[in-house]
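Take a look at the protein record below and flag anything odd:
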Amino acid sequence: MISRFPALVVGLVWSAAIIAAVVLAPAQAWLGAAAVALAVPCLALALVLRPAVIAFAVAAALLGIGRAELPPADPDTAARALQVAGQTATIIGRVADDSRPAGGGAEALIEPELIVVGGERVPKVGNLLVRWRGPDEAGFGDQVTVIGTLVPPRNLPSFDRRAYLAQRHAYLEVAATSIDVRDPAGGLYALPRWLRARYIAILDDALSPPHAAMLLGVVLGIRRGIPSALENSLIATGLIHLLVLSGLKVAVFARIVQGALRPLLGRHATWPTLCLVGLYALVGGATPAAVRAAAMGGLAIAASSLGRPSHVWTSLALAAAAMLGWRPELAWDVGFQLSFAGTAAIILLTPAIEQRLGWLPGVIKEPFAVTCAAQVGTLPMMATDFHVISPVGPIANAVTLPILPILVAAGLVIGPLAASPEVARLAALPVTGLLAYVEQVSYLLARVPLAALPVLRFPPWAGVAYYSALAGSMAAIRSQGRRRVLAAGTAVMAPVVIAVIALGAWANAPAQVSVLAVGEGQAVLFRGPQGSVLVDGGPSPARLKDELGQILPPWQRRLNALAITAPSLGHVGGLAAFDRPAGTVLIPDSDLGGSAWRTAALEATVRGARLTPVHAGQVVKIAGFAIEVIAPELGAPGEEVGAAYLGLRVVAPLGRAFCDISDLDADAQSIAAARLRGPCTYLLLPGGGRSLLSPGLERAAHGAQLIASLAEGRLARGFPPTVLRTDQEGTVTLPM
């Protein structure tokens, strides 16, 4: 029988906390504070009372009330943030998370206390993601002064980074020119960072690169200083998870700590062990994977000490609920998704896979089965987030996972041995050999043909179809008779139905425009229920083919129209050997030079297209779009290439307009601007935004969303930071 005394003490302490919360908290926050305070003794009573589910349910309800009573986010924060974008600011604030390596420097989330722009204080604009270059460091809890330019968060191809950061109430980034720590975090806040820095210094002294960086990742889950070639090999072979703080590593750490404390503290060693496991996760950066592993490991240790059975599904669900209750935005975090999905898949699938691998040696069978299970359970996420699937992953893990506990234990032991540097270096010699083995396995298997299958894009509906098939298959394996037939039928029919619905919605999507990420050049696809129009083809046939294949349904091979605006390779290089037929080919009604565009137009006419020269003032209606020609002027000389290109304003049925002025020079831009029959909702910058617009076009396109199609580089000085760039965001798709 477990004593109720600890629960009684906790209840009394937190009852006092309720009174303090009601008296000291602001009037509008007292209910939330009281609810959270009441939830804690309920959780404590759940450990000793039966049925515990009642106490857990009451605790969850109270925590929900506390969460609901938190002050809501200001809906105008994002709008205020955009108003100051592009300006240089001085910021004083606290670091709200551990800094992470990024682009030759680091980045960290800052909770600003003061923002000054142009000598005036700026109202609240949310949190700030500060990026800086160089060796400067800032840790959790530090008060810092930052000087830099406020810019909207940069999106990444296939990842809406702005939406993700908005979940953390960050609507601006700061490209910092300087960052200074005014007031370093002290006390317990500083302990994890001090331990991390001390351990990094020990490894750097005991091991040579890249082994020191590799061991740091293996022990603490920190990816720092790993050569790009090695990191790419680890990703290609599915071994990158070795550099994440996992449940296995927490278990090894807990066993070492318990083994050291039990001779001294006996049965009372449990609670110090729990504290040290939590500290271990904090030293590793408190990533979602680290917190999940520490929470589940801590629950298992606590249950064992209290004489209660541990249930892995209960631990997993409780850890997920607690983490999402603390920070709901973690639901969009890649690390959170992979950690929980991978753990669930391992629990569900490993036994069945292991049973079918009886012919393998035991030391290889378990890691092979675990890796197969994790890979099956996380395949859509890996394809979506890392754009790669590794068929050799199970093999690579089967031959490396057996030595992982040895590496973790040895890496932890090196820390205390650093009191004698020579002893630490001597102990590191066998560890270096094991690390070299893992590194060589990754290098070797990464060179195997088809070791890593690239995945350009993995649509959400495909993930839903995949998991529906997986769930049905698992149900079929575990059932008998009619239930097995029903489950097998569901595994087949559910993904088929999902795919048919998704493809139908895809085929009948509303009008939209896609500025394709084709490299240094431009290609624009207009698509609606009545058909599609392609304007230019970019520089690369392969890139154009891939991008069109991702947007157009497989059965939609034919284009209603193809427009060629300019003869340069950045516009027509991708049309070499273009295999999609088109109904009409629009070309400038001018005597352009060059042969590449003529070849592309000729090939299109051979496939049945009608060649249509157009000039300013004409309107062509195709596929539900009204294509207004704003350049070239009739009779424009072809030898003056800056004046003879094709400029278009494409208007959709709902009235939105996309303006593409090709690479017209400044004078031709002003003339084309005078031809505009209405505003431009979107404007594609000429030349990838390397030069400014003419004053006439700038006035005519005022208020338009600017888009730059480029491979890399900087825009001309003077464009706002809200420009959408294909090199940062991938293909830019917008409603028409």
Remarks:
- The chain has a mean pLDDT of 80.
- The chain has 25 helices and 23 strands.
- Residues 148 and 177 are 5 Å apart (CA to CA).
- The first strand starts at residue 88 and ends at 95.
